[in-house]
Design a protein that fits this description.
- The protein is of the alpha/beta class and about 180 residues long.
- The protein has a single domain, classed as 3-Layer(aba) Sandwich (Collagenase (Catalytic Domain)), CATH 3.40.390.30.
- The protein is built from seven helices and five strands; from the N terminus they run ββααβαββαααα.
- It has a five-stranded mixed sheet, sandwiched between helices.
Length: about 180
């Protein structure tokens, strides 16, 4: 089930986001606060500068779904943390409703958070930052690109954490 949120400033629509939760183990993020955080992230990454009406879909999926997407669209076998699509630069895209889309694997986030001794919410926030950096044109295919991407991720997370409590946006799984 997708939820459409339209952020308004002085009555003018500036960004549209659609969230969906295709897995049921994790609670739906706090939509209002997540909307504000993602809008700020898109502003930091320059997406709203070039398109103030940028439309973004964020899908929270399970391991089976991310594995299938990874195989079908990236050509890799197995799971991954986040897959991003930038439809605004793809003239052949049949997707006229949105400009960008993220698929975030909540299972991967949970296991990575445990392994790295981080909170689940911090890992999800990192995946959103990583995916939006890809949509904004950043790549991490080479060692130098990966270094640059990690540096940008750290800087952006440091900015976001000043204004947003990730734990309030992305609640832990209830057993």
């Amino acid at each position: 089930m997708g939820v459409s949120l339209i952020r308004k400033t002085r009555g003018t629509k500036i960004m549209k986001m659609i969230f969906s939760r295709q897995q049921k183990l994790y609670p739906m993020p706090s939509k209002k606060t997540m909307n504000r955080m993602v809008e700020e992230l898109c502003r930091i990454c320059g997406l709203l500068e070039s398109n103030p009406f940028f439309r973004l879909a964020i899908n929270f999926v399970d391991t089976a779904t991310i594995c299938q997407l990874n195989k079908d669209f990236v050509g890799h076998e197995g799971s991954t943390d986040v897959i991003s699509f930038n439809y605004s630069t793809d003239k052949d895209s049949s997707n006229d409703d949105i400009d960008g889309e993220l698929f975030i694997c909540t299972d991967t986030a949970e296991s990575a958070a445990k392994r790295l001794n981080r909170k689940f919410s911090e890992e999800i926030a990192l995946y959103i930052v990583h995916g939006i950096l890809h949509i904004s044109g950043e790549d991490d295919s080479t060692v130098s690109e990966r270094r640059r991407m990690r540096c940008l991720e750290r800087k952006i997370i440091a900015k976001l954490v000043k204004s947003f409590n990730f734990s309030e946006i992305f609640p832990e799984r209830s057993n």
